[in-house]
Amino acid sequence: MSRTSDYPIRGDGATDIAAAIETGIVAGSLAAGARLPTVRDLATDLGVSPTTVANAYRSLRERGLLTANGRGGTSVTAMRPRSARRVAPPIPPHALDLARGNPDPQLLPDLRPALAAVADGLASTAGRSRKYGDGGNLPALVAALEPRLAADGLPIAPVTMVNGALDGVELALRTVVHPGDSVVVEDPGYCGLLDLLESLGLRAIPVATDDEGPLPDALTAALARRPVAAVLTPRAQNPTGAAWSSSRATELEAVLATQPQLLVIEDDPLAEVADEPLRDITAAGRDRWAYVRTLSKTLGPDLRVAALLADPTTNARVAALQQATTGWVSWLVQHLAAFLLDDADAERTRTEARRRYGERRTVFKEKLKEHGVGRCRPTGGRCARARSSGSRARRGYASRWPSSRSSRPACWQPTLRQPWPLRGATSRRSGLQELGADPPRGRATPASRRRS
Question: CA nearest 289: which of 157, 149, 143, 142?
């Protein structure tokens, strides 16, 4: 047994040693930056070979838990726990939290007609559930999706229904990755995706973005590091709202064409209410590709369902993985989604949502500009990219802007708490109403500075 900062490291094999160190990291006993014993010292303490300890350290480095610092030794990576990324800090009274990017409940379709229709459809089974082995893709949902996918220029390919966007991305990734492999991601990027990569033991290669998507030169540099997959967002990117322009899509396609075997996954989270057209680059001449379109963002977070299209090899592997794990997406959920895609009232709600979200982004930009929070460029979706000086951040406008010098992708969200100074209840109330929020009553208190 060896002790590091009063934490005992045990084990007689690489797997046991790595597990002991990971347990200490998760429990907080080995804090970020804590220096571990040298390979030789730990091997001597545990009575194992240096190769065994080196293998344990390597496996943890590949998963991003440890960092090699040359002569500085090996230390615990400075990284927020996965659970902390998605839990917003406490919000002061009367401050407006704009960080979550949740849909406005008033702009989601009414589920009651869909629930009633699905209940009526259970008459043939006397209200009972289907049996095991009777799952799979609901033909009615696939039929409702196919013309929408075709209208966006996507190739004709088998549609596989999955349990939400991240489930689809994970299934696609698992067709090619092994622990320690690298995956290209946008920087700043979606926290949930970074969490997923960590859980799979994968390393994220960050690619800088602007309002038109990933920068071609940054993507070229990332591909030189020999990733096995790339996960990209063609429009309504979280957290920046970026959408690929036609010229940028052409540039990205040319860069990716240099590695046709790379699995390129497009995550299209807000397709049903997006302002920008889809500029798909996955299927044109690529050997490996996948496209994921979730319905949860527009039909409602409780309807965890998404469509996945892929090349024949990836599609077959996804089907096998799904069969071995979740099996299928609940037919009750699929029936609800199919009804809502075909329902005229639900379609009018989506049209209204698209219009209202666009208006709110414009108001948001104008309100920030009025008070000196510049360079806010809302492009699409429910996110916007804004820069704010440190003084304004201290006054409660924003948290931080991720550094372009970081070697890791930023798990950054636009944690704007109070988008304009409170010079009286009237101006704040009118501003919040313009954004569609319910204004609080009473005197408001500036939000303290937060870091995501």
Answer: 157
pTM exceeds 0.85: no
Residue 93 CB: number of other CB atoms within 10 A? 10
Please tell me what DSSP assigns to residue 395.
T
Name every residue whose Cβ is closer than 8 Å to that of residue 125 and which is 6 or more positions away in sequence: none
What residues does each domain of the chain span?
2-76, 83-107+348-435, 112-344
Burial tier of 35 (Cβ tally within 10 Å: 0-12, 13-18, 19+): middle
For domain 2-76, give the CATH number.
1.10.10.10
Model confidence band, residue 358 (pLDDT cutoffs 50, 70, 90)? confident
- pLDDT tens for 140-189 read 999 999 999 999 988 878 899 999 999 999 999 999 998 889 999 999 88
For strand 74-76 and strand 160-162, is the pairing parallel, antiparallel, or unpaired? Answer: unpaired
Distances in whole angstroms, Cα of residue 30 to Cα of each of 33, 58, 126: 8, 17, 56
Q: Is the pLDDT of residue 425 over 70?
A: no
Tally of CB atoms within 10 A around 370: 12
* Whole-angstrom distance, CA of residue 434 vs CA of residue 349: 19
Give, in words, the CATH class of 112-344: alpha beta
